[in-house]
């Protein structure tokens, strides 16, 4: 069974985005799956996470937008 990590958050400094970025890389290294739903208000942070999203495998989902429907579906 492959572990699945779900993170639903605003991508802002007070949420520890450096830890989220690290976790994305670590989950990838360990063969886990990750769903990240979040949006950054800072354009630089948004671009950083877009770049990170392009590096991870297709098994991971990184949606850099806020989507209420996806957030509820991810929790089920």
Automatic annotation (TrEMBL):
Query: Which reaction is this enzyme known to catalyze?
Result: [(1->4)-alpha-D-glucosyl](n) + ADP-alpha-D-glucose = [(1->4)-alpha-D-glucosyl](n+1) + ADP + H(+)
The reply on keyword Coiled coil is no
Tell me one GO molecular function of this protein.
alpha-1,4-glucan glucosyltransferase (ADP-glucose donor) activity
Coiled-coil ranges (or none) = none
What Enzyme Commission number does this protein have?
2.4.1.21
Superkingdom, according to UniProt?
A: Eukaryota
Q: Which residues cross the membrane?
A: 52-72
Q: Has keyword Zinc?
A: no
UniProt keyword list = Membrane, Transmembrane, Transmembrane helix
Name-wise, this protein is starch synthase
Species of origin reads Stephania cephalantha
